[in-house]
Amino acid sequence: MSGLTHFDGEGRAVMVDVGGKDITQRRAVAEARVVMQPETLALIRSGGAKKGDVLGVARLAGIMGAKRTADLIPLCHPLALDKVTLDLTPEGDASIRIEATVACTGRTGVEMEALTAASVAALTVYDMCKAVDRSMRIEGLRLLEKEGGRSGRWSAA
Fold first, then answer.
1. Which residues does substrate bind (predicted)?
2. Strand positions, DSSP E, the chain
């Protein structure tokens, strides 16, 4: 598997040396969905959840998650992030779409930070609403786009 870069010549896991890479603007966008009962989404929309503002807390949790990615995912580089935004949008009557955008100026990309932000936000929605809807599920976590670095721009089809 020549495409994997987190291994040294002896097959041991290592953190990739990015010291020789150019410093460029990096940006990544990821998404996830939390699917729930219509009553649960109605409760979130009304602000009636017992634990408070579900979307506001999930947004903050996603931002905090992005900032802690290197602590959560082995071999990720700790990055000084320039920007993290999360949009949590109710869709239809039974789901919330989460879109996380992360940017930095650095030597390595922010794909993992965007994916972590979307994941943590989705898990926070679940945690805050699980008492009323244990059937919720998190779906579709994926990278939507990235730009910067040697590989340039990439977008999901």
1. 75-77, 112-113
2. 24-35, 83-91, 95-106, 137-147, 154-155
Bridging pattern class, strands 154-155 and 137-147: antiparallel
Binding residues for substrate: 75-77, 112-113
Query: pTM score > 0.85 for this model?
Result: yes
- Which residues 6+ apart lie within 8 Å of 4 measured at CB? none
**Beta pairing partners, 106:** 24
What one-letter code names the amino acid at 1?
Answer: M
CA 154 to chain centroid, in Å, comes to 17
Q: Is-contact 48 132, C-beta < 8 A?
A: no
Contact (Cβ atoms closer than 8 angstroms) between residue 13 and residue 6: yes
Place of tokens 């996603």: 62
pLDDT digits (tens, 9 = 90+) for 22-40: 788 999 999 999 999 999 9
CA 26 to each of CA 66, 87, 103, 118: distance values in angstroms, whole numbers, following the listed order: 14, 19, 5, 17
Annotated binding site: 75-77, 112-113
